Structures are given as structure tokens and as C-alpha cells.
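User: For documentation purposes, I need each entry recorded in a consistent format: the amino acid sequence on its own, followed directly by the corresponding C-alpha cells. There are two entries in this batch. Please keep commentary to a minimum and don't merge the entries.

Assistant: Recorded as requested. Entry 1:
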Amino acid sequence: MISKTLFITILLSVTYNCNSQNIEAPSIRFVTVNNASKNASLSWSYPEKDKIDGFIIKRFIYKFQGVADNTYNTIATIKNPEADFFTDTTTVYGKCTPDTRIEKYRIAAYRNIEGSVKLSIMSNIHETVFPEAKYDICTKSNTVKWNGYNIWKNNLSKYEIYAKTGSGNFSLIGIAGDTIFTHTEVSENRNYEYLIKSINVNSDISVSCITSIYTKKELINGTISNKYVFVSDNNKIELKFEVKPDKNIKSYSLFKFRDNKFVPIADFPADVSENIIYTDTNINAEKVYRYYLAGKNICDEIVANSDTVKNLTISATIKDKSLNINSINLSEQKNDLGKFDYKIFRSISGNQYAEIGNLETKTDYEDNITEILVQEFKEGKLDGIFCYYIEKYNSETGEKVRVSNKSCIKRDASVFIPNAFNPDSDTEENRTFKPKIAFVNSYNIVIYNSGGQKIYTNFNPSSGWDGTYKGKRLPTGVFYYIISCKDANDIQKIFKGYVTLVNSE
């Protein structure tokens, strides 16, 4: 039984081949696409039309119920041996759709001999050309790729690429020998359409379907805003930015103005939290630095950025020594009055900072230290170093947005030495010989009698000599003193002179 089946199969094959060899196969010239009707058409040639009765057209079937997938099936029989062109409008296996996929065709000639249909062998496979376009947002270009008209092999002459935008006409934009073409310098937010013409050495033309691409511009909904710029420890600047994420922002970069241009100094991934905090340690706290934070897309292009922000700087100076006034000058122009509050803080001799006032209408502040000086004459506790800084607040939200650098000044020592005292005076400050000393960090007084004998020494400027020696009151007389002290600038000062002790007894 197996032998008979094999014999019959071989016999049928031989018969078909013999019949096919008696009929020459047609030669497809080209397959093309009619973009108006969105149908595919075939053109072919046949040399001995008087020897056949017509042609059969087969199309590659992708998916159709009841038909084996990926097989060629007859879609039309043309009972005219003179025919050389066919447009596929058939629906027996579904409509051809060359605008959505590659359509493949084969053709055979047939002859009807005494009721028996004999077929030629099938022609080579010809495919419609199916281009696809992709927009590159980084290079602002469209790249078009397509399946080549490879069946022509060495007879292929060239590919012509046509394009149009809007309602205009297609125009030739390039010629390629390969199956890829890049359309450069395209505009954003425009629809581009492309088609390919494959041309062989015989001037046969196969037109592809039309492919289109919309060059969509990125819409960035993300925002970046600065929350604060704080100078801390007079050696670093801390910046905080609030970011609203966006899918098109792939990274963030912090820029700093340096050498007459903004340069990136730090990068951050897109998956950061809502706050980006950075500390810049490469600073001089007395200088002004400008920064901004930028969001970048996949092309490393800046698509969003914060306002440019800068640190707040102040400088403290002695405005008038005789009037005991320290001046604090603000670096920025206060053109935002009403929107921000500026609070001034002061520290003396390394003590804790305390708020002492506000900048209201001007960019400087005068700190009158007369009361401090008077108190210092009594207590002698301060070395004369005054330090200041400013905090800037948003008037509406109350948020602190800037902290300036700390600027310090060193006051000269203030010394007032009386020339007489009376232990029995009704005025308390006249009962001792106590020089008024302010703003020194070291102090020493030595008193000698007229014979050159040392009778008193002291290192505390807040206490004075009561006119006694070894517990006994000295008579009225003139005494010599030497006062030695160092001020905040570590400059030693020597004061010498005479004081008269007036004793009532």
C-alpha cells in the first residue's frame, strides 16, 4: 500500500512538471501601490500569448479563517492571454491592504487543453514596498526604512524618496541605493508623509504605500523652583530646589556661573524626590555666585529650568568710630520690598546670635553700639568682635529663602583713664581708680608709689584700685601706672601716666 501511494505521488509530480515545462512562466515586471485606492497592482510580460488562455494570480495569505496561514492562494483568474496588468480589488481571502503590510504576489499562465487546465510554473515572488518612518527628537530628523525591491537584484537602478507636509504635493527629497534614508532638519509639530519609488534599469517603477510620522514636540509639564540658598559656616552654600517630575525629563543638572559662562557642576537622576539639595563647597562666602537647576530630556537638551538664583552677601564695616556705629551693607538691590523681609542678626565676642533689626527701605543698616560700650566700661567682658548675618523671608509664606554669609568687624580698644580718685567720694565710680576699658582680650595694670615700689597689680578690667596697700589706706599722693592691653586685632597697647589719690583723712 505504501509503495502504491509513493508511485502515484511521483507520477503526478512528473506529470505536473511536464505540463508546466510546456507552458512558459510569466515574468512579473513590478508590483506597485495605488495610494488613492489603497490597492496593489501587478504588471507582467509574456512572450507567447497565443499559446495560453490566461493567467492566475496568487496572493500571500496572512491570516484568514479556513485557509492555511502563510500560503499563496488564487485570488483571480484572468481569461485573457493579452492581459498584462491587474489591480487587486478581490476580497475572497480578505482585501489587500498594502498600506498596512507587505503584500506578496505570484502569477502563473494556464492553458485549457480538451477540458484539462495545464499551469506553468509560478513566477518569482514580488512584494509591495512598505516604508516606515521614525522621528528622532534629538537630531530633529525622520528616518525612513523600507523593504527593498530585491527581486530585481542587479537590475535595480535606484530608490527615489518623496515627501510632503500638510496639503502640499509630494516632492523628491533624495535618492538612495540602500533601503534607508534620513530626512534632516524637519520641523516640530508637523505631519510628514513619505513614499518610495523603486526604479529598475528598464525604467519600471514600483510605488510604495504612503507612510506618515508626526514630529511631536515634547510638552513639558514639570516645573523647577528654588526654595532656598543658604550660606553656612562661611565656607559652603546649600541650595534646595523643588521639582515637579515629568516623563520627558530624564535627568537634572545644576549650573553655576563661572569664567563668564554657566557650567554644570552636578547631575541628578530623574527619579529623585520632589526636592534636590546640593552643597557647593567651592566658594568664597564674601562673593556672589549664581546658579540654576535644569531638567534635560533624553537628548541631553534643557527642556525646563529654574530661575537664576544667587547667594546673599553682606559686608560689615565701622562707619564712624567717634559715634560708635557699625554699618551692615547688603549685596543685592532691594527692589522686592513688600515681598520679602530681611532680618539682621548680631553676635558679640562669639556669643549667640540675636535678632537686632530689619532692613526696611535701604540696603544697609546702622548698628549704634554706644549702649554696649557703656556697659562694657563697667563689665569689661567683650573683646570687640562684632559679627552679623541676614536672613531673608518670603513675606507671604513666611518661608526662609536666603541666609547670608557672616561678616565680622573688630573694634579698636576704647580706653578712658581718670587722673584722680577719692575713696570717700559720694560718687561710687570715683571711689576707686578704675580705668574704663572696652573691647580688649587681655589687660594688666601695675601701680607704683613715688619711690618706685609696686603697690598694686590687676588683670581684671572690671575691678579697680581702692587706694590701699596691704590692707592699709595710703595717704594722699601721686602714683604712677602702666596699663597694658590687647584689642580684638591682637595689637598690644601701652598706657602710662599719673593718678592722684585724694584721701579725706
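Entry 2:
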Amino acid sequence: MKVRTILYNEIQTDDAVDEIIEAVLAHRGQVTFLENGLLSEHQRIALILRYS
């Protein structure tokens, strides 16, 4: 399985998913991309929330 983590300055906004990615990165969160199809049962996006 390929996993890719990106930095905030690597993002350009195009759609709703990109907006979510940008918001996560702007708040020092981590974004990880998986191979196509691995999140199909979750409508292609998943979030792990952590409260301090």
C-alpha cells in the first residue's frame, strides 16, 4: 500500500475535498493519501478526530 503525506504549501484548492485538506493542514493536522479504492466504503474520505 502506498501512503503519501503532504505539506501545507503543496496544496491548491479545486473542490470540497481540497478545502477540507487545506483546513486540516492550516490547523497543523496531517493529511494522508491512500491508493484509489481503499476508502470506497467510506465515500472516499475518512477523518480521525482527536480532542486535546
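Summary note for entry 2:
Residues 4-42 form one domain.
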